[in-house]
Amino acid sequence: MIDLHGHYLPGLDDGPADLATAVAMCRLAAEDGCGTVVVTPHLRRDEWPEVSPARIAAAVAALQAAVGPAPQLLAGAEIRVDSELLADLDAPGKLLPLGGSRALLLELDPWGLGPDPVELARELRLAGWIPVVAHPEHTPFLGEEAGLVERIVEAGARLQVTAASLLGEAGRWARERARELVDAGLATLVASDAHGVDWRPPGLARARAEVARAGGEERAVQLFDEAPAALLAAPAPPLGGAA
Ligand SMILES: [Fe+2]
Questions:
Q1: Dihedral sign (CA 153, 137, 195, 10)
Q2: pTM for the structure as a whole
Q3: Which of 16, 44, 60, 112 would bridge 141 by S-S if both were Cys, CB 3.0 to 4.6 A apart?
């Protein structure tokens, strides 16, 4: 399996506080069956202004050295959507896609502040990117307007549902919404959004088993293996106008 969303880097955001915990998280992910983990610290959040693509890349290399070969770690970010996001597509060093691909993991404002998500998805697709909306089941405004999620998907965005939501570990509302998105075929992939060893730990296997039980093995393969692999395989367009 591939985990496309997790806060595995030590001391950068609200993920693990130290290297030992970060290493332990990586080991848990590997034991759970994740061969590849894209580490995605919060980027463009006011709480952690010092997080940058360059700092993430350096921290990923250091963590991989400490962990050893498995799991394979790739650099990414959970990019907070704000009014400057589209302008920064052309600014060198400001954005970081998932593992060098054309997929950008986006954290929408929970209350819908910032750019219209349908327009944003359209603009990003036109610019050659694939927007991946992180945990729509935890983004309240997406549930308030009928048909909004469908329009975002029609505009070209992908939806990442969180494993803990499917298992009911993030509340009843999140579970119901996550299962609706999976059942309706709107969810593209499932990721852990791991933050620690005890609180929000890594691991996809239990959610994968639940999806396979409810929707069949083929659906589980799609959400946990094929869809994330396909996203990582799409090479990124040039960032910041670089060749
Ligand atoms: Fe996250």
A1: positive
A2: 0.95
A3: 112
Q: How far is the CA of 5 from the centre of ligand 1 (A)?
A: 6
Distance 65 CA to ligand 1 centre (A): 23
pLDDT for 243 beyond 80: no
Query: What is the pLDDT confidence band of residue 234, given thresholds at 50, 70 and 90?
Result: confident
Report the Cα–Cα distance between both ends of the chain, in Å, rounded: 32
Q: How far is the CA of 41 from the centre of ligand 1 (A)?
A: 7
Q: pLDDT tens-digit profile of 131-173?
A: 999 999 999 999 889 999 999 999 999 999 999 999 999 999 9
Mean pLDDT (the chain) is: 95
User: What separation in Å is there between the alpha carbon of 154 and the centre of ligand 1?
Assistant: 24
Look up residue 204 and give its DSSP letter: -
Q: Which residues make Cβ contacts (< 8 Å) with residue 226, sequence separation at least 6?
A: none
CATH of domain 2-236: 3.20.20.140
Buried b (16+ CB within 10 A) or exposed e, 227-236: bbebbbebeb
Sequence spans of domains, the chain:
2-236
